[in-house]
Amino acid sequence: VQLVESGGGLVQAGGSLRLSCAASGSTFTISAMGWYRQAPGKQRELVGTIPSGGGSPAYADSVKGRFTISRDNAKSTMYLQMNSLKPEDTAVYYCNAAALRIGGNYWGQGTQVTVSS
Fold it and tell me: Alpha-carbon distance 31 to 19, whole Å?
């Protein structure tokens, strides 16, 4: 499975961005997908996840109510809609896909999101 993120950039506080994660390869093996982020000098943290077979996304408390994860299975693409962005949301955002039945765990290359105050 290969993952490619896009949509990062520079935005002012209070603004919005939408990230995309396009999956290719053996996408039928994917059990769940998620977004993580890593700010400078900090550990990578979970933003939220979405299961493959339906079900609701789950979010970290820090983004709940502001970020929305969705996926288009026909396009093998996951999205992260980020609203009401804050400077503390500045980080490299990574897409992740888990293939639990085969023990696969895949990462994209990351996309930078910078929120100016």
Answer: 20
For residue 43, give both structure tokens.
């550990």
CA-based R_g, the chain, Å: 14
Q: Are 5 and 92 in contact (CB under 8 A)?
A: no
Render pLDDT for 3-61 as a digit per residue (tens, 0 to 9): 999 999 999 999 999 999 999 999 989 989 999 999 999 999 999 999 987 789 999 99
Measured between alpha carbons, how far is 95 from 80 in angstroms, rounded to an integer?
10
Rounded to whole angstroms, the maximal C-alpha distance in the chain is: 44
Cα 92–Cα 102–Cα 53 angle in degrees, nearest 5: 70
